[in-house]
Amino acid sequence: MPTTPSVSSTTARRLAISAQFLAGPPAPPTVDGIREVLRALRCLQLDPISAVAQSHLLVLWSRLGQYRREDLDHLLWEARWLFEYWAHAASIVLTDDYPLHAATMRRYPAGTSNYGRKVATWLKANGTLQTHVVQRLTEAGPLPAGGFDDVAETPWESSGWTAGRNVERMLDHLWLQGRIMVSGRRGRARLWDLAPRCLPGDAASAPLPDAEVVPLAAEHALRALGIARPADIRQHFTRDRYPGLDSALTRLLAEGRILRVQLEDAPSSEGWYLTADRLPLLERLESGEWEPRTTLLSPFDNLICDRARTERLWDFGFRNEMYVPRAKRRYGYYVMPLLHGDRLVGRVAPRLDRRSRTLHLEGLFVEPDTPTDDALRAGLADTVAALAEFVDARATVRTGPCPPDWADLFPEG
Mean pLDDT, to the nearest integer, of 109-126? Predict the structure, then answer.
């Protein structure tokens, strides 16, 4: 029987960081570099909040540095190498993974939940609106949401902001079914079109059998995580869409595509795994081959999108405070964790004033027992300067609390 590798917590962190292109020399800030990073990550979460820049742009910046945003647009809207769909949240995903996501499209809306039954009933009651959307796109697409008439026969009911937004709800449901897709963007607004017009000709030519969906998604998630437990896999990539995961992992083990590992000081019952193609990286890290970097992370970064795993491996409790009343916030409205080597050592609360092109640092915080040595000071100064350059800020000023050892790094404004 093969020996189960034992992995220290430090190596586990370094494996995750390296697997996500946050250590070692950065990938080149080119179209090919973007492709390389996204083949590892498999998705970029979309989020409308842009206190500094949109999250998906920052996730790439943390790994690539000063790349051209036009290159990402090229991969999305011209090469169609990427498209927008639902991964662990609304995301940019790989067109190579279209057959995997198509399994979700085929099943949506699942009738096993109250919400799924609600959607199915609403769609059935609104055939006229469905037909209208498809006809409008056939004749005139691509179109924004405002390009459709609200001919719903039954309004969408909700206690939240979606109540009565019938056209937007229909577009979202048809998107999740894979019948329509995001064809482009006009500013922040999505432009919709029929799915066949938005995909390369061969993208949907080879449907993925249902039996292959969970093993493939689990393998992608595990490769991005470095090492992981089943609970971690369930929260990553296609979050909460891993039925029969235990059987899938057993199959991947039997096929030699993944390996069992033991995290030191963790109960053996936890069951940690590693993809077989990550074994050389693990061996290099254990031999001392480690090139740490310092960077800031989007609050929705792939490395930390599972808050429980972040606390488990990094002992770093992270919560968004965007919807917390100002007086009750501990750190700030928009907070970017500071990655230094293999530790999350602090937080920076930046905000970009686009009119004056000034990057305001509304708070800088260091984790307890973190030595604020010269390496950390230099890394923090460099990454804040790099962020300012990326968002085209002409000045950076500190307007909030700051540890005494960092105060001289940033002018107070």
Answer: 91
**Structure letter (DSSP) for residue 343:** E
pLDDT in tens, 233-269: 999 999 999 999 999 999 999 999 999 999 998 887 8
How many angstroms separate the Cα of 370 from the Cα of each of 15, 51, 125, 179, 365?
21, 27, 59, 51, 11
User: How many other C-beta atoms are found inside a 10 Å radius of the C-beta of residue 15?
Assistant: 24
Radius of gyration of the chain (CA): 23
- 202-223 pLDDT, tens digit per residue, is 877 778 999 999 999 999 999 9
Whole-Å CA distances, 58 to 6, 48, 51, 274, 289: 34, 13, 11, 27, 27
Our CA angle for 75, 78, 79, nearest 5°, is 55
Question: Looking at residues 99-118, what average pLDDT do you find?
Answer: 91
Q: Are 347 and 384 in contact (CB under 8 A)?
A: no
In tens, the pLDDT along 326-363 reads 989 999 999 999 999 999 999 999 999 999 999 999 99
Cis peptide before 404, with omega less than 30 degrees from 0?
Answer: no
56 vs 201: CA distance, rounded Å: 26
Distance CA 307, CA 351 (A): 23
Q: Where are the beta strands (DSSP E) in 276-342?
A: 294-296, 336-340
Q: Mapping DSSP to helix (H, G, I), strand (E, B) and coil, where does residue 84 land?
A: strand
Contacts of 370 (CB under 8 A, 6+ apart): 343, 345, 346, 376
Specify the amino acid at residue 401. P
Instruction: Please report, for residues 26, 47, 239, 257, 289, the alpha-carbon distance to residue 10 in angstroms, rounded to integers and kept in the order given.
Output: 21, 31, 26, 24, 13
* Residue 399 per-residue DSSP state: -
Please report where in the chains the tokens 């979309």 appear, as a residue. Answer: 46
Question: Residue 248: how many CB atoms within 10 A of its CB?
Answer: 23
